[in-house]
Amino acid sequence: MKERIMKEGEKSSQCIDNVEIRMIRFNDEGGNCEMTLSRRQFIKLSVSTVTVLSASLPFEAEKARAAGYDLKLRDAKENPSICHFCAGGCGLIVHVRDGKVINIEGDPDNPTNKGSLCPKALACIQVRENPVRPLKPLYRAPGAKEWQPISWDEAIERIAQKIKEVRDTTWINDGTNRTDALGMLGSAEVDNEESYLLTKFMRTMGSTYIEHQARI
């Protein structure tokens, strides 16, 4: 492909193919000088030119980033909090505006995490603000494909009935007074006191299968 460009008395011709770029510039004496560049050289020259021009512009990335951060959190209230996803107890700063959590970040003054957060802690905002988060207990009948919302009273009643049914039908009455059909798996969502009560409850039910994984 061959293209000719006329601009302010200066004539250039570019011959571009898969191998090289050839530029011819006519000088004031009517002669010409020819420069041949490979595509790689042309790209390097272009990148270098853009870099030099960008460096000369009055733009500071850190100031721009700080300005964007301030704009994002404008009129938001800072609330110190603690991440509930594991036993680490990392400190959080929760930014709230108009009753809505808009940002969560690590608390640099907290001695546990010193401002850093894991992905689970950064996702804490989803616990409150996720639009598809279930707000009621969901029940799926045997054989059904869809989950149906039910009330908390109905959910608790169903759970109690199932626990009693399983315990009564699997009770081992050989002096050990236990059942092998019930078990408990704790999570990071419960604190020490709740873990104690859950353990006492499961032992009352006759179960010895009690496990707690703080980082699930």
UniProtKB/TrEMBL annotation:
GO process annotations (BP): anaerobic respiration
Broad class of the protein's primary localization: other
InterPro entries, per the entry: Mopterin_OxRdtase, Mopterin_OxRdtase_4Fe-4S_dom, MopterinOxRdtase_cofactor_BS, TAT_signal
Subcellular localization(s) per the UniProt record: Cell envelope
Domain 4Fe-4S Mo/W bis-MGD-type: 76-132
Database matches in PROSITE patterns: 4FE4S_MOW_BIS_MGD, MOLYBDOPTERIN_PROK_1, TAT
Molecular function GO terms recorded: 4 iron, 4 sulfur cluster binding; electron transfer activity; molybdenum ion binding; oxidoreductase activity
Cofactor: [4Fe-4S] cluster
GO cellular component assignments: cell envelope
UniProt entry keywords in alphabetical sequence: 4Fe-4S, Iron, Iron-sulfur, Metal-binding, Oxidoreductase
One Pfam family hit: Molybdopterin
UniProt record similarity statement: Belongs to the prokaryotic molybdopterin-containing oxidoreductase family.
PANTHER family hit by this protein: FORMATE DEHYDROGENASE-O MAJOR SUBUNIT, TUNGSTEN-CONTAINING FORMYLMETHANOFURAN DEHYDROGENASE 2 SUBUNIT B
Protein name: Molybdopterin oxidoreductase
Origin species: Sporomusa malonica
